[in-house]
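User: Can you help me understand a structure? I only have the sequence.
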Amino acid sequence: MKEIMLKRLKPLIIQLIIFGITYSISFVLRDRYFFGWLIHNNFAHIWVVMIILTIFGKYLYSYAIAIGNIIGILLGQVLGEYILKLSKAKIATETNVDKIRVLENSYYHVFIWLSFIIIVIVLVFINKLISKRLNR
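Assistant: Let's start by predicting it. Here is the structure, written out as tokens:
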């Protein structure tokens, strides 16, 4: 039992270091909408899922969450700001107030971030299924 816990401790420490660095960067950039949201909402507690998966020996899935988190944050910030910029460009002088409010608040950062994490997890799952079938 002790050997199993020690074996699982290394991936857990690596993943927590990755998450700590990501958290630190987000804390520094918390004045931006997306990073502020991540800090305020504790990264939607995905780090808890990562820890639980590591404890149960599902390293591939927990690493997928860690890596998906980093890439998802980058994509969420870049694409989210791009979508917001496109939305704000649609505002004209004759645009009504309700439409302006909708266009100015088109924040898709979090959706992109979580979607990417889910996509990475699904890709890992599909990869495991394919490799399992090929090994039969």
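Now, to help you interpret it: Residues 94 and 100 are 10 Å apart (CA to CA). Residues 2-134 form one domain. Let me know which part you'd like to focus on.
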